[in-house]
Specification:
elongated; inorganic pyrophosphatase (n-terminal core); 5-stranded mixed beta sheet; alpha/beta
């Protein structure tokens, strides 16, 4: 199936369990529908960030592979229609290379050694070999194989064998009488001649390495015997002397004329906008493509860029620019499935947009399975159920609706899991600090938002352990100022959410960050700890209240 038919189902940066599980489950649904409707599209679950411990636990529990990791969705070389120009061996003759180029209507050929790119031969290189070479030793300097010579002049080796190369000596035409030939033929030369017995004999006696007999002339038994005794090869060609003399240089191997230095190559993973400028500045028409192992893949030209198709995306669990995968502006967004407030993503054309005020994207995905009459497998049910548990904090979050809880219970039954036990295992895995740095903790569930000209970030960690929350606080407090600089935000907040107490201690950093929170949640101005009672939801409780304050 062509890559043009690939559609990437992707969640937000710093993905949580809902983002990952909804991407997997919705991609599965779309593939089922694609098969039924014979669309030919392939939907690929994708992620825009690293998977946190909670989600890792869920994927491992249900024996599900992690989605494909993509950190930049801009068009790559692999998205271009790469021309599958077959590579040739370095020993191939110029004539063979020319025949291939003429037959395929191309001007460049890659030369390969063990699937690796060794060089490029072009039409202009072949023209150079024919027009600018005046050295009658060029055939031997190039190390031309006898096989190439015989093929190029449509000849037959009647004495000697095809193995080996013409490695030393001149190429001469025996146009003079034998007396004069003795003055210019040297040992190891190749002599082009006709059917004159005396000339053939003279060339052999002068220790020529090879004689080429033209016009398909018959070679006597005596000459053959003499040639064998002197170690001289005999090639018979059907062409006249002039034609043989013209053709024989075309037998040289391409390695002698190919370009090897300063080759401009691109990798399949290179981004198109990065290579366009390079291509524009170079005189070459074609550029070779290699994979990450250095193996040759094919060729592209500037013309191929005109047929570039943007990658196709379905966004799940987000509709904010700051949360979307890098390069999404250069992709074609087909659908958005989300449960958050309306963000600021713009599309070039109308899209299917489904946004519902529920606690989890997975709830919406479940509905779409039912609406399309697609069976929910136990594995899919487990993923969707775990996503709802995570996003609703097992129905404790104010974002949770009766529909979320109802669907979660149905999914738990299909998956064969206990809701309470699954929740405890997930939250324990998610709040574990083992081996984590402050950066790891901060960005495992971190989202950026824009209000007017204000850009701020909000991270969150949910835990059932007060001791763990205190440790996280001690690690993050000195780290948050670095986030301001690293992410280019004006304020950063981190929610330390106690699932059992249903409360959040909020860490603040940035100009007026604490002041905004005090005003927004009507806290005492001299408060040390920013304790938000009953606040457990970033989406429904913290963000709307903070946004309202920032807009005043």
């Amino acid at each position: 199936m062509s890559k043009k038919n690939n559609v990437y189902v992707i969640g937000h940066k710093n993905p949580d369990t809902d983002s990952i599980c909804s991407a997997i489950s919705y991609a599965y649904l779309k593939n089922e529908l694609s098969q039924k409707q014979e669309e030919g599209a392939k939907y690929i679950p994708t992620r825009a960030g690293h998977i946190n411990e909670e989600t890792q636990y869920v994927l491992k529990y249900f024996e599900q592979e992690a989605p494909l990791y993509v950190n930049d969705i801009r068009p790559q070389v692999t998205d271009i229609e790469i021309r599958k120009t077959a590579g040739i061996e370095a020993g191939l003759s110029l004539k063979k290379a020319w025949d291939i180029m003429r037959g395929a209507r191309i001007v460049s050929l890659p030369i390969l050694e063990d699937e690796k790119l060794a060089g490029i031969i072009t039409v202009s290189d072949i023209a150079y070999s024919d027009m600018d070479v005046y050295d009658n030793m060029i055939l031997s300097k190039a190390g031309t194989s006898y096989k190439n010579i015989v093929e190029t002049i449509d000849g037959e080796m009647i004495v000697g064998d095809l193995d080996g190369e013409f490695e030393e000596g001149h190429v001469l035409i025996a146009a003079a009488n034998p007396d004069m030939m003795e003055g210019y033929i040297e040992p190891q030369d190749m002599v082009i001649l006709g059917n004159r017995y005396e000339s053939q004999l003279c060339a052999i006696e002068m220790d020529a390495q090879c004689i080429v007999v033209c016009m398909g002339a018959t070679v006597s038994k005596t000459i053959r015997k003499m040639a064998k005794e002197h170690g001289c090869r005999i090639i018979v060609s059907p062409y006249d002397t002039y034609t043989v003399a013209r053709l024989i240089n075309h037998s040289m191997p391409v390695r002698y004329f190919m370009t090897t230095d300063n080759l401009i190559t691109f990798h399949t993973t290179d981004y198109v906008d990065d290579i366009q400028e390079i291509m524009a500045k170079r005189r070459f028409r074609d550029f070779p493509i290699t994979d990450n192992q250095g193996n040759y893949v094919g060729m592209i030209s500037r013309r191929n860029l005109l047929d570039l198709e943007r990658k196709k995306l379905i966004l799940v669990d987000h509709n904010e620019k700051a949360q979307a995968v890098d390069g999404f502006e250069e992709a074609e967004i087909l659908e958005i499935i989300d449960h958050h407030r309306l963000g600021n993503i713009e599309t070039n054309s109308p899209v299917y947009f489904r946004n519902q005020p529920v606690g989890c994207t997975a709830t919406i995905v479940y509905q779409m399975y039912k609406e399309n009459d697609v069976e929910i497998k136990p594995t899919i049910a487990g993923l969707l159920c775990s996503a709802i548990i995570s996003d609703t904090l097992l129905f404790r979050s104010p974002t949770c609706t009766p529909l979320d809880e109802k669907i979660a219970k149905k999914l738990a039954k299909i998956a064969g899991i206990n809701l309470e036990e699954q929740a405890q295992a997930m939250f324990k895995a998610g709040s574990s600090l083992a081996g984590k740095t402050a950066e790891d903790i901060c960005f495992q569930d971190f989202k950026q938002f824009t209000v007017n000209d204000m850009v701020f970030g909000v991270g969150q960690l949910n835990s059932m352990s007060k001791e763990e929350l205190q440790k996280v606080k001690e690690m993050l407090t000195p780290y948050l100022p670095k986030v301001l600089e690293k992410n280019g935000v004006q304020m950063v907040f981190f929610m330390l959410t106690d699932i059992l107490d249903e409360s959040t201690e909020l860490l603040c950093c940035g100009a007026r960050a604490k002041e905004y929170i005090i005003d927004a949640f009507d806290l005492k101005e001299n408060t040390e700890k920013m304790i938000l009672k009953g606040v457990v939801s970033r989406k429904k409780q913290l963000i709307p209240t903070l946004v309202s304050e920032l807009q005043q």
